[in-house]
Amino acid sequence: MMYMMYFLLFGLVLGLAAVASNPSPYFAALGLVVVAGIGCGVLIWHGGSFLSLILFLIYLGGMLVVFAYSAALAAEPYPEGWGSWPVLGLMLGYLLGVVSVGMLFSSSMYDESWMVCDEFGEFYFVRGDMEGVATLYSSGGFMLAMGVWVLLVTLFVVLELTRGMSRGTLRAV
Amino acid sequence: MNPYILTILLFAMGLGTTITFASSHWLLAWMGLEINTLAILPLMCQSHHPRAVEATIKYFLTQATAAAMLLFASITNAWITGQWNLEFMSYSLPTTLVTVALALKIGLAPLHAWMPEVLQGLDLTTGLILSTWQKLAPFCLLLQINPSNTSLLLILGLASTLVGGWGGLNQNQLRKILAYSSIAHLGWMILVLQFFPSLTLLTLLMYFVMTFSLFITFKVNNSTTINSLSMSWSKAPIISSMVPFILLSLGGLPPLSGFMPKWLILQELTKQSLAPLATLAALSALLSLYFYLRISYAMTLTMSPNILSNALPWRLPSNQHTLPLAITTSLTICLLPLTPAIITLLTL
């Protein structure tokens, strides 16, 4: 189990370094897909299975797919990936930075364990994350309304920012 | 812009600041800050020309980075201490990270580089909203957290006053000068934050009044460079005669109201046995004073060479709303005798 968590977190850091080091949106979004998938896996290990499912569906299956389509429309004819030396150098630099900061903050390599502890234990009737969502809809009703209003404002903001297409803010592709 | 959209955006800006003011939970405070950032973006790129869009993007990126750092710090604090309250942060790493994130949000040195470029790309009214209203929510959070490290806030403050002074020296674009002036004043506010928070609030509100009058003066003159201010004496003589007082008040000279915050801050720093710091801060105010004097020199104290007919334009009744300018100019000049009352009113 610890090995599984170690493996997942290692992949997370690799994926994040890929997102940061790739100048082309295709490979960066691919890194994001990997990171989101692994994040969902880590979430499941910590007991948030419902949240992980929602994350997978909405974030990966909704937003990243839309991003992939829009990136494909604004096509880059010669995208640079890990094949080119500057990008690979950046990637290795980020990994080196993460490892050095990690070694700075951790006491040793063998003292600490990645053992997963679930907060609620075996005798709870509901999982923590599903209970949280239910609370949002019941006693957190005012915050839900606030969240809905802010989403509507976000819609207006995006529509206003992109109004006019190439005469406005958007690049004339 | 469509008036309904404008209403919704301004309402959202008010909502964001109100949410941050009313919050004691870090997630709610972060939410308010994000709403503020979101709502000002369309206001910033209203004119849709590339410079404004560039300013909008730069603003969005820096504010999103700061909000992400804030979220990271608050989650780290929740992980370590198990609670999400603003006032009870007792570990140094999350508190330091929160302070640095809020410094990036308001534009303190050495995290100030976005401020002149963003302000330069905006029109004067949006720049005013950016310099004043958007500083309220982060300051509300800064006033509430327990500072972890005495020297962090002092370094941020002193660096901001020095950078604000030196950075504004070689500028002839008014919006960049206003940006560096903002950085310098924010530095003064942060210097005294951990010793006497009421003075931070006092400096913030005084800065709002002073910079409001300056922004609106430039807007009335429709000028964005120092050169274009040089003919304002013939078009709006009363405004031109009052501007040196506004600028000297920003520079912190007695007997104008801008002296009030600087005086009280220097007094408080001396009481805390930080007299050399107080001396350095006072000397850095001289740098800012130089470019304020340069603006007043170009605008009021000298008449640039010009043909005779330009000195006698028709002074037609203007449609500009100058009542706010009149009120804030009077407050900028005459508020110093009310110092005890203001201190009492603003006691936190």
TrEMBL record, chain A:
It holds the Pfam family Oxidored_q3. One of its GO terms (molecular function) is NADH dehydrogenase (ubiquinone) activity. It catalyses: a ubiquinone + NADH + 5 H(+)(in) = a ubiquinol + NAD(+) + 4 H(+)(out). Its main location: mitochondrion. Belongs to the complex I subunit 6 family. It is an enzyme of class 7 (translocase). The keyword DNA repair does not apply. Its EC number is 7.1.1.2. Residues 1-20 form the signal peptide. It is found in: Mitochondrion membrane. The chain crosses the membrane at residues 27-46, 53-75, 87-105, 136-159. InterPro entries: ComplexI_Subunit6, NADH_UbQ/plastoQ_OxRdtase_su6, Nuo/plastoQ_OxRdtase_6_NuoJ. GO terms for cellular component: mitochondrial membrane. This is NADH-ubiquinone oxidoreductase chain 6. Keywords: Electron transport, Membrane, Mitochondrion, NAD, Respiratory chain, Signal, Translocase, Transmembrane, Transmembrane helix, Transport, Ubiquinone. The keyword Cell wall biogenesis/degradation does not apply. Core subunit of the mitochondrial membrane respiratory chain NADH dehydrogenase (Complex I) which catalyzes electron transfer from NADH through the respiratory chain, using ubiquinone as an electron acceptor. Essential for the catalytic activity and assembly of complex I. It is a multi-pass membrane protein. It comes from the Eukaryota.
TrEMBL record, chain B:
The keyword NAD applies. Pfam families: NADH_dehy_S2_C, Proton_antipo_M. The chain crosses the membrane at residues 57-80, 92-115, 151-170, 233-253, 273-293, 323-346. Residues 289-343 form the NADH dehydrogenase subunit 2 C-terminal domain. It catalyses: a ubiquinone + NADH + 5 H(+)(in) = a ubiquinol + NAD(+) + 4 H(+)(out). One of its GO terms (molecular function) is NADH dehydrogenase (ubiquinone) activity. It comes from the Eukaryota. Keywords: Electron transport, Membrane, Mitochondrion, Mitochondrion inner membrane, NAD, Respiratory chain, Translocase, Transmembrane, Transmembrane helix, Transport, Ubiquinone. Residues 23-287 form the NADH:quinone oxidoreductase/Mrp antiporter transmembrane domain. It is a multi-pass membrane protein. GO terms for biological process: mitochondrial electron transport, NADH to ubiquinone. It is found in: Mitochondrion inner membrane. One of its GO terms (cellular component) is mitochondrial inner membrane. It is an enzyme of class 7 (translocase). Its EC number is 7.1.1.2. PANTHER family: NADH-UBIQUINONE OXIDOREDUCTASE CHAIN 2 (PTHR46552). Belongs to the complex I subunit 2 family. Core subunit of the mitochondrial membrane respiratory chain NADH dehydrogenase (Complex I) which catalyzes electron transfer from NADH through the respiratory chain, using ubiquinone as an electron acceptor. Essential for the catalytic activity and assembly of complex I. This is NADH-ubiquinone oxidoreductase chain 2. It comes from Fundulus heteroclitus. The gene is ND2.
